[in-house]
Input
Amino acid sequence: MALDAERIRKDFPILESVYNGKKLVYLDNAATTQKPRQVIDRISEYYRTYNANIHRGMYAISVKATEEYVRSKEMAAKFINAGSYREIIYTRNTTESLNVLALALGEKLSRGDTVLISTMEHHSNIVPWQMLARRKGIALEYVDVAEDKSSLDMEGLKAKLERKPKIVSMTMASNVLGTVNDAKAITRLAHGAGATVILDGAQHVPHMRTDVKELGCDFLAFSSHKMLGPSGIGVLYGKEELLESMEPVLGGGDMIRSVDFQSSTWNELPWKFEAGTSNIEGGIGFGAAIEYLNGIGMDNVKAHEDELTAYALKRFSEIKGMKVHGLKGDRFGERIGVMSFSIDGAHPHDIAQVFDSEGIAIRAGHHCAMPLVTSVLNEDSVARMSFYVYNGKEDIDKVVDAVRKVKAVLKIKD
Ligand code: C6P
Output
């Protein structure tokens, strides 16, 4: 076994809860993950013993708060193998990180320039570029999902790169299909075409080792809340020289070096991009989450999810009328533990409701990836379960029982 899920589960107080008379089985980790005691306690300790604003205080608790906040950035930098914490900007979430990039990099684009994304993207890597296209008259192009309806069409990517897009922004792992894209190859090809490369790591960084030096990407976005940390903290990683060359998008306190009545100069990195009082407790709690994941080891996290994915694929293959979206067979390792599925004759919202009555939390809908779900999968909605470090095979067994209940309730014949 890659990790001891049963022992890990004991660190998560919420997993002791009983809903609808059943012990909670939490399988909506792609939406957000649960928090271990270590994270909850770290945030509580901050409030109880050293709550103060950072960078301002000439007194002990402010100095400690600043040190802890910076320490969390150092851990985040190390976690993705960034050069230093100067390359780690804290935002609210992946969405904000991508919006900051669309605003800051978008400033340098002009009418007729192209931004290339894919049809596999979450709305947060589509809408900011559409807004930029409307503002600046740039063209937005898409790389398609391949015929397998699961992986990115790499030949299509090469063809689109011939048009020399200025920016290529792609997801590292799909929140609907679970597919892990070859982000290293995408980055290499896009750089070869002269593009700036942004990677959406929201579903990758929490689930497997992510090394920005190895990937070679220019920017990476991800969220603390999807990796055991608090909400309201996202990461925007950028290569130092690129961040230095960019203008900030928000102005105010903390991001300046000097201000006079007419103009201002900017603070050093990463503070240039963090205007106003930061989410201090969020940053500090995120540090505790990173420590927790380091304790498990990211290769163990991936191996555990592989084990659960293989088991779920096997169990689901035994059920008539059940369709699993995404890569299957011996390609199961090319996905994270996100599994979308449909059951003949059952609406995904009904599936989620019956699951809820069994204490099982899953998500149903378009998962903020409408183009992918409607145009590629040809569905208006799919059910989705997603695993993390505290899930075990017994959770999947409960899902299989719940699928049987869905069929019984909706009178679907076997
Ligand atoms: N996907 C899901 O249930 P935020 O909300 O900003 O932390 O993350 C946005 C985001 C960006 N990219 C990908 C690939 C994502 O999966 C998400 C968030 C959640 O699938 C909430 S919609």
